[in-house]
């Protein structure tokens, strides 16, 4: 059986949990369960807690669209990203929006701030408003969210990285991207290299790139030290360079988790009078324009973010229109941009 046929059958056979099932699981009446969800001031805290636990365990989504509208097909797509301050996600959103709007769909945007519990609440709300499809940035979700997605009978597109998706997947191999940059640094003779990232528990894709980086260095018989910062951005990159020089005085190169950090460090190196790459080599990830307009030009890895959004939206539209999706998973790849900073 083809992948598309398998997923089509999975969606047709999925039955959404009902309010009565939630009530039975919580040991209360359907009326009490409804009050716990809609008028929590009318039930005691213990009862409400039991109902909410049953809601999460079963993956129940209340339909927030009233009357005849509930059976009508909506024309909006829920898009959920971890940050609206990061230009990486903005470019993906642009690709999604342009492609969806060309076919008469609108996007409804949610921002998780790298909080998986917030992601769960957003997805639950959007599904309750009967969105046509769902696009999420990433494959990692908390248990309650995974239950929601497993029960969902709408197209689900997970973007940014590759992996075992619930339905459709467009992204790139971040571990391989980390290996690619590590190989480049070793080829340039940088055997004492530090990896610097920020909040890797939330930005787990940067953590995947570090794992690829570490693998290559350890294969070469070298250590792969990691410095984790509490925040990102240009200022954090500058502070990270100062910490790196103080805590690892012998390093000859820094592999930053993204271009914002790397560019901040590169500019600060100039202020400190440090020659790049002669004293310290600097590399990044994402291929942002800012890194290509500084001197020396930043060595980085470019990800095709706008194209990622376009490809993801095209696959979702084909699924919504009942057309065959030839590839459930699409690897958009990446490109090593060798600048003058390494």
Automatic annotation (TrEMBL):
InterPro entries: HTH_LacI, LacI/GalR-like_sensor, Lambda_DNA-bd_dom_sf, Peripla_BP_I. The keyword Transmembrane does not apply. SUPFAM superfamilies: lambda repressor-like DNA-binding domains (SSF47413), Periplasmic binding protein-like I (SSF53822). CDD domains: HTH_LacI, PBP1_GntR. Residues 17-71 form the HTH lacI-type domain. This is LacI family DNA-binding transcriptional regulator. The keyword Signal does not apply. It comes from Billgrantia ethanolica. Residues 1-23 are annotated as: Disordered. Keywords: DNA-binding, Transcription, Transcription regulation. One of its GO terms (molecular function) is DNA binding.
């Amino acid at each position: 059986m083809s992948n598309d046929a398998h997923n089509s059958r999975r969606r047709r056979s999925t039955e959404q949990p009902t309010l009565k099932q939630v009530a039975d699981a919580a040991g209360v009446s359907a009326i009490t369960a409804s009050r716990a969800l809609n008028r929590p001031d009318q039930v005691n805290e213990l009862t409400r807690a039991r109902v909410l636990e049953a809601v999460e365990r079963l993956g129940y989504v209340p339909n927030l669209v009233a009357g005849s509208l509930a059976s009508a097909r909506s024309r909006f797509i829920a898009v959920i990203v971890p940050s609206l301050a990061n230009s990486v996600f903005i470019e993906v959103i642009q690709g999604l929006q342009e492609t969806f709007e060309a076919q008469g769909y609108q996007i409804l945007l949610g921002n998780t701030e790298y909080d998986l519990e917030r992601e769960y609440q957003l997805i639950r709300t959007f599904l309750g408003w009967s969105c046509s499809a769902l696009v999420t940035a990433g494959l990692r979700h908390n248990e309650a969210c995974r239950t929601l997605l497993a029960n969902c009978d709408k197209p689900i597109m997970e973007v940014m990285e590759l992996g075992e998706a619930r339905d459709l997947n467009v992204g790139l191999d971040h571990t391989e991207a980390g290996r690619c940059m590590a190989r480049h640094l070793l080829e340039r003779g940088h055997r004492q290299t530090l990896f610097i990232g920020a909040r890797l528990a939330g930005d787990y894709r940067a953590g995947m790139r570090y794992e690829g980086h570490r693998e290559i260095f350890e294969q070469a018989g070298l250590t792969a030290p990691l410095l984790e910062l509490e925040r990102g951005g240009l200022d954090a990159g500058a502070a990270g360079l100062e910490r790196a020089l103080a805590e690892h005085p012998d390093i000859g190169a820094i592999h930053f988790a993204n271009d914002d950090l790397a560019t901040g460090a590169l500019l600060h190196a100039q202020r400190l009078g440090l020659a790049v790459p002669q004293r310290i080599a600097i590399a990044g990830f994402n291929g942002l324009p800012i890194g290509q307009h500084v001197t020396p030009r930043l060595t980085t890895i470019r990800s095709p973010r706008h194209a990622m959004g376009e490809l993801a939206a095209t696959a979702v539209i084909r699924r919504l229109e009942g057309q065959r999706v030839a590839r459930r998973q699409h690897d958009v790849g990446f490109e090593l941009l060798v600048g003058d900073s390494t």
